[in-house]
Amino acid sequence: MKKTLYITPILLFILFLTLALYAQQYKVGEGDVIKISVYDNEDLQTTVRVSGEGHIVVPLLGKVSVEKLTIPEISDKLTNLYADGYLVSPQVNVFIEEYRGQKAVILGEVNHPGLFELRGTTTFLELVSKAGGLTQDAGEKAIIKRKLKDSYQHDQKIIAIDLISLMEKGDFNMNLQIIDGDNIYISKTGFFYVTGEVKKPDAYKFLDGTTVIQAIAMAGGFTGKANEGKVKIHRKIEEQEKIIEVIALDTPIYQNDVIIVPESFF
Questions:
Q1: Sign of the Cα pseudo-torsion (216, 217, 220, 223, in order)
Q2: pLDDT in tens, 151-181
Q3: Other CB atoms within 10 A of residue 135 CB
Q4: What is the tens place of the pLDDT at every residue in 46-78?
Q5: CA-to-CA distance for 189 and 139, rounded, in angstroms?
Q6: How far apart are alpha carbons 110 and 80 in whole angstroms?
């Protein structure tokens, strides 16, 4: 089933707050265009692009280093510089006018996988939306591979996103900010199979923690002919086919298991 995100007004408000927080945490870099205004000093208003060395040129102040600073940090820095012999109690406002070209790759179970430009602050859900949404075969996990910028060995940080918690339970802590160079992979779901004396024998989508009795319930439950005490699991283990006698119906199942419910002859 294709994942659909239902957003209540409260969750929408939380999402907007999250996006605002991400914007405040964004660190500027080469190519970003910044708009600066100083209250009651229109002549000091300027729009500047961050240079390759991480500098901007500001009226009265000249060259100012802003590399890896957030917007609030830049505002504070300019306020302090203007207050140091230039203006009395300056009020400086700083905005991102244009973000530099940042890109991320999303692959796997999305409808339009590929390379996408990140315009401004982009969250995981926004990138999924740009990629056409999840496919019907999307699994429970998304993996983000993120380069550690200060690592000489090009190490990567692996971040797992629980899609069930995010998209069905509305846990926006999982809706992480995507940054330049991220590689995102949406896993494909596994399946299990229920056959024999159940009402709806078929293939079903596997979820971690699914038990034998839950699988049978998904298949409509036992028929009147079922031998409930003789359920078996057909499982492939190290390239060998195994038949496992089910001791307890709360036994967890694995992907690609075939649950067999035999007929009772008595």
A1: positive
A2: 545 577 889 999 988 888 888 888 998 988 8
A3: 16
A4: 999 999 888 999 999 999 999 889 889 999 999
A5: 4
A6: 47
